[in-house]
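Hi everyone,

Forwarding the result from last night's run.
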Amino acid sequence: MSDHVFGQLRDAVVSGAYRPGDTLPGERELAAAFAVNRHAVREALRRLQQLGLVLVSQGGATRVLDWRVHAGLDLALYLVRSGDVLPVDTLVRDMLEMRACIGIDAARLCAERADAATRETVTRAAQEYAGLAPDLPRMAEANIALWRHVVRGSGNTAYLLGFNSLVAGALAVGRVPPERRAAELLDVAGHRRLAEAVAAGRGTAAADQARALLTAALTPTTPPGRECRA
């Protein structure tokens, strides 16, 4: 019951049916409208507040917040898991741009900071990745594993948490159709160059190669063929 109330109110706030500053109906009214008990309503409101969608005043009104100001990536994850999306036409592009920003600098830092064991792990992951070509779905999974090693090797906890948000629930990194990222995924040589730069400790080269890989899906191109660049 709480899930139903939460989902309906979440969608109403995100879609603009309730605008920032609006006051939601009281618990009793919501319970009657959804034919649930007030405990279910309170639980739904608590979850909405955790997402940054409303502000619940003790004993007072529940006011709608502007999700563009108060919400985080967890809102997008909730929506993806429920089969909904943010009312933003460019959400996939935006997530891929964020992934690129994190990945480019994480690659540089990994090359500069990683220990020998991490460098070996990145090299091995790139080799395993190359062996999966041209199976795009399997390459997409291996791609996440490779980048997780790179981001962890960067030593930047904020980057790691951001990366986790992007791949948890398979957001832009996982659920974007592999065909959309074919130019990136099939660039086996590019992934090898990335691993080589990390292994050699060449930060600038690692960042440049990461940029070439991670921005490929953001550049309109004609559909690539299935042949890999070895």
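The chain has 13 helices and two strands.

Cheers,
N.
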